[in-house]
Amino acid sequence: MYGDQCGVRGLGGSNFARTNSGEFCLACQHTSMIQLGCRPWNLSLVSVIILAFSNMLLTFFLLQSENCRSGDVSHPLEANLFTEWNLGSFAQDVPTSRPCSVRSYQTVPDEEDTLMIDIRRGRWDARRLFKTFDAVLTGSGFSSLSESHLVSLATQSSVEKLHSIVQVAHHWTGPISVALYAAGDEEFDVLQKYLVYLRKCYPPIRDRVLFSLLMPKDRMPTKQPRRYELPEDVDCVKPEATLQQLVSRISSQQTAWRVQNTYPQNHLRNLARKNCQTDYVFLTDVDIVPSFNLTQGLNEFLKSANCDKCAYVIPTYELDTRVRFPYNKSELVRIAEKGLARPFHQKVFIHNQFATNFTRWVQDVKPGNKGYAYVNKGKVYVCHDVTNFEFLYEPFYVAKDIAPSHDERFMGYGYTRNTQVYEMYVAGYQFKVLSPIFTGHWGLQTKKGRPAWREKQNNFNRKHFDVFKKEVFARYMRDPLKMVKKSR
Prior knowledge:
Layout: E1 16-18, E2 24-26, E3 35-36, E4 39-40, H1 45-65, E5 123-124, E6 130-138, H2 142-148, E7 151-158, H3 165-171, E8 176-181, H4 184-201, H5 203-208, E9 209-216, H6 239-247, H7 252-260, H8 265-274, E10 280-283, E11 289-290, H9 294-303, E12 310-313, E13 316-319, H10 329-337, E14 341-343, H11 358-361, H12 372-377, E15 381-385, E16 397-400, H13 418-426, E17 430-435, E18 439-442, H14 452-476, H15 483-486
Parallel strand pairs: 7-8, 7-10, 8-9, 12-17, 13-18
Antiparallel strand pairs: 1-2, 3-4, 5-6, 6-9, 10-16, 11-18, 12-16, 13-14, 15-17
Helix pairs in contact: 4-6
């Protein structure tokens, strides 16, 4: 305390005033007049009010501007942005300064960006291979959005692909449940830092997204969650580059471990889905980007839907990275006609989406088609039913959260999504294709870009399917695709 440097003292005998160092000191005792430096001054009532108000205003601005860094400013994200990767390094130790934003005087408290978990606890999966943590970070508006919307978007991601959530969160305006996977201390550390970046830079993520976490028993972190802050040179318009720089510091030993161990996709899908709080769930992968206005259109459509066993298919297209994200269905069809977009997995594995019948789906953009008026208005409607369902069909769909869960025996690639869709079909679900909404995936895929280990995992999961299809038959006593008979 600086007792010999008392500042301006307020009315009514207030005992505290602000010093030049920013601390507060005990002012000289005097109740009849204002004192400055402990010397009396006779001032008029107007001067008293002005000085008192100025002191309060100055203190307010000092508190708000203290330690503020321009690096925390969030830049607007263009809707058609195809993200890239770049960022400065995070501080290794917890800094003493607090970040603040020039956008608003109300900043996100640091503790709200710290994962709300104790790694010694958690919930084990059925085989005790993975430990689950629900709602480790929750967006400020997630609960209210869940009450005002009929459908949530549920998705999952590993650490290195998490940048994709930026564009997803800017397109999807309802609640989002994200299940994350992190193995070991290095990935856990990167994940925590990047979550701070996402929540500080992007209001839609801070407001709408609930994050849950899954970690493997054989690679559990040894350190509890920490508090991190953004560096001064953070770039809020390069989420992919930001993450890449963090991921590049992960050791080769950790990378080798990840290649040798399968990614638990179905565990994560179940985790993301069951943390949704709405009746309907739109389950996707993190790099599947919803079309504009999909949330509102889908929410309006579901208000009149009355089908417990309906799966509403949202068609998915691959997009050339040279184009902007299509503003609407008509624009998507135009770029597809130029070869800059095509149905998802069309060249890699056509059966993945073939039953959606894209040829029929694109017809309503032409005048005279019965669905043309709906397309022009952007109103969501059932374009057609899936009539040629086949095994290996893997649509992204919206359904009530009573659908069968994803079987967690299937890990890695192959038979992870299509087995769940197959069980839905055996259970009597109808698949209905919606228009004019859609989803996009950046990049025109080819078989050359697929690593050999994916086929190895696919063959391993095929063996699990021989048992799975018999269990499904016993559960529903139906075999509409003759899958069990074919194996006899």
